Amino acid sequence: MAHHYSVLMVLLCLSIESRAGLAVLPEPLSLDDAMHFSSRQIPVLSHVKAAIEAVNAEALAAASLDGVRLTAQGRLRWIEPSYKSVNEDRNDSHASLILQKPLYDSGYADHLQAAAEMAQSTHNVQTLIARQQYQLAIMRAFYDVLLADIAFARDNEAMSIAFVAADKARDRHELGVLSDVDLLAAESHYEQARRQRSSSAIQQRLTRAALAIAMGRPDDLANNLVMPEIPLPAKLEDDFSAYWRQLVENNPELIKLRASIVAAQKKADAARAAYGPVLSAELGVAAHNRSTASTHPVFAGLLLELPILSGGAKEAGIAKANAVLQQARADLLTAELRLRQEALEIWMRRQEILVDIEAFKALGDYRDLYLDRSRALYELEVRTDLGDAMTQTTAVHWRLMDALFNWAINQARLRALSGAEVYARNLSAEEGEMR
Which of 209, 207, 213 is closest to 43 using CA atoms? Predict the structure, then answer.
């Protein structure tokens, strides 16, 4: 019976997984797994997909301007024949089928198609930007969960220590060797530690929810996470100018903005050609209820349209297109200045983080030795600060891991700015061995 129940539960889980279209998250969850098993149905990717579809639709609309058009026309009309007319029939209804192909439009369609193709050329860039955004979000959320777990361990130790201290204080108070004020102080300290532990427990839940949302799987909260290895460089590269040149050439945002300028220029050219001469070829067949000398069953010819007055529409269109072009150029200049400052800050931040890491490593070594000594003295009943030493050791570990995670995020941001993938499985080969 138990075997059948187990099989039923497995089938039920597989059914739920199949309906959701998502694989079950591994346990424990690594950062690689978080990236691999994240849903692709998340807002940042959906927005890019919608934008790409809009650009494709605009390209189709531009291509249709040069296309062949087939039009069916029908007219029901009653007339009073002229006194000169030989045909006295008053039913002048007719139907026609007209095939039309533009031959020349002053370059209007070509300019619009070129603008649309330039916008389409940024599909891969838009996708990369979106992928970078959600990978960075997953990395941050993943690290936040790990920090929340370390913080909970720290606060849980502190609460346990405060509880033992308060319990001993009550015993000493009952023996009359501890004052009421000192007892209340110990109990107050315990309540504060308990409150901090409760806050840390809530933070554990919130950070896991944030990770699940970043992965596009809000109902899948990971229980246990694998602590990733954070590679550090053997030597820090200090040539910012070389990095900046690479960034200017490969930054996805700048690439997209440069393409926007070209597209805007083509649309400005199209606006200037919008009211030029248009030459089209026509071929048609018609059926007339009332035949006269001027009605024909088959016809072919050329149609020339030459706009003379546009009522200011041409000038307005050109002004609008030029404004968009100027805005695109201003956006590129603004982005270059902003990115240079942002890149320099991230670049310089590396040294600061590495100094923090070295400092916390040294402090951690000290705390480990201090903990060993406190443990030995505790066993000899010489000193009783073992609990505090354990808490301080965990607190230093939190600060060290926070610095390491800051390094990983900082490096990921540098890669994103230079157009590279934010996250790769084998970063150690790129960044050097662990220190």
Answer: 213
Distance CA 250, CA 282 (A): 49
Instruction: Give the Cβ contact number of residue 149 at 10 Å.
Output: 20
What is the three-class DSSP state of 282? strand
H-run or E-run covering 78: none
Q: Give CA separation, 146 vs 26, 28, 199, 219, 223, in Å.
A: 16, 12, 15, 19, 11
Specify the CATH class of 31-71+95-431 in words: mainly alpha
Contact indicator for 135, 422 with CB cutoff of 8 Å: yes
First to last CA, the chain: 55
Q: Could you list the beta-strand ranges (E) of 22-155.
A: 69-75, 94-104
The torsion angle over the Cα atoms of residues 320, 321, 323 and 327, rounded to 10 degrees, is 140
pTM as predicted = 0.78
**pLDDT tens, position by position, for the chain (435 residues)?**
444 444 334 334 434 443 446 788 888 999 999 998 888 777 877 888 888 888 888 888 888 888 888 889 888 888 777 766 666 677 878 898 999 998 988 888 889 888 888 888 888 888 889 889 989 999 999 999 999 999 998 888 888 888 888 898 998 899 888 899 989 998 998 999 899 999 999 999 999 999 999 999 999 999 999 999 888 888 888 899 999 999 999 999 999 999 999 999 999 999 998 888 989 999 999 888 877 767 788 989 998 888 888 888 889 999 999 999 999 999 999 999 999 999 999 999 999 999 998 888 887 666 666 555 555 554 545 455 555 667 777 788 888 899 999 999 999 999 999 998 888 654 433 333 333
Q: Which two tokens stand for residue 400?
A: 């060290």
Q: Cβ atoms within 10 A of the Cβ of 426, count?
A: 8
CB 233 within 8 A of CB 431: yes
The domain locations on the chain are 31-71+95-431
